[in-house]
């Protein structure tokens, strides 16, 4: 509960249940909807990647890709592909962010990746997607989430450092940053999430007032 008695939302929700997703608040107070991807989202997923800037595409795929193979798009959206979890973030129906993880053969860890539209970077979209992916990973008893990030992708590295998870990062021989989150170690994810919600709610009240 915040200083004026406004109740906080429930703890970070688990989207493993097919509830159609839920609404969150960005740091600027704007509402965003986060939901599991479906095959019906294929066209707007394709369009989303086509409209990413070269820089954002490079950060996501470590190279410029003018189009994403149809097979990759369908695998990211197919609910029957249990090892690939994809969440979509939308504002007023517009797709603005994608967060996903792919479970490793060991069944103990998964690799996460994110893409956020250029117009909405720096608003907390990737942070909210990561929070929800963590909830799903823990529900599936995964112990580690990993990520591979280019060293000059400062925004994504900042998300990983500040989300509140127990994190280790190192620069490997390929000059990329390997990040590991220990999901079974003590962390401050819920505390940081509550703080972000409070700030977002205050921004929302200012905008509506």
Indicate the topology:
Elements: E1 22-25, E2 31-36, H1 42-50, H2 54-61, H3 70-77, E3 84-91, E4 94-103, E5 109-116, H4 125-139, E6 144-149, H5 154-162, E7 167-171, E8 177-182, H6 189-208
Parallel strand pairs: 5-6
Antiparallel strand pairs: 1-2, 2-3, 3-4, 4-5, 6-8, 7-8
Protein model, in words:
With 209 residues, this protein is an alpha+beta fold. It is built from six helices and eight strands, in the order ββαααβββαβαββα. It has one domain (22-208): Aminopeptidase, CATH 3.40.630. Helix content is 33%, strand content 25%. An eight-stranded mixed sheet has the order 1-2-3-4-5-6-8-7, sandwiched between helices. β4 and β5 (109-116) form a beta hairpin. The model is unreliable at 1-11 and 14-18 (pLDDT under 50).
Characteristic terms for this protein:
209 residues; alpha+beta; Aminopeptidase; 8-stranded mixed beta sheet; 6 helices; 8 strands
Strand and helix order: EEHHHEEEHEHEEH
User: Radius of gyration over alpha carbons?
Assistant: 17 Å
What's the CATH C level? Alpha Beta
Distance between the termini: 20 Å
Give a quick rundown of the structure.
The chain is built from six helices and eight strands, in the order E-E-H-H-H-E-E-E-H-E-H-E-E-H. The chain has 209 residues and is an alpha+beta fold. The radius of gyration is 17 Å and the shape is globular.
């Amino acid at each position: 509960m915040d200083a004026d008695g406004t109740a906080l939302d429930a703890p970070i929700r688990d989207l493993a249940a097919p509830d159609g997703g839920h609404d969150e608040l960005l740091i600027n107070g704007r509402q965003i909807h986060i939901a599991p991807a479906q095959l019906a989202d294929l066209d707007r997923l394709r369009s989303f990647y086509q409209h990413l800037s070269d820089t954002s595409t490079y950060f996501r795929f470590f190279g410029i890709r003018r189009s994403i193979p149809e097979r990759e798009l369908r695998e990211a959206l197919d609910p029957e592909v249990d090892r690939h979890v994809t969440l979509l973030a939308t504002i007023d129906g517009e797709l603005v962010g994608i967060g996903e993880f792919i479970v490793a053969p060991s069944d103990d860890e998964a690799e996460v990746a994110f893409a956020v539209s250029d117009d909405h970077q720096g608003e907390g979209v990737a942070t909210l997607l990561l929070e929800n992916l963590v909830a799903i990973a823990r529900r599936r008893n995964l112990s580690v989430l990993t990520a591979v990030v280019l060293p000059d992708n400062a925004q994504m590295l900042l998300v990983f450092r500040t989300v509140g998870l127990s994190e280790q990062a190192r620069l490997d021989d390929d000059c990329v940053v390997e990040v590991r989150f220990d999901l079974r170690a003590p962390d401050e994810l819920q505390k940081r999430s509550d703080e972000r919600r409070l700030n977002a709610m205050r921004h929302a009240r200012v905008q509506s007032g």
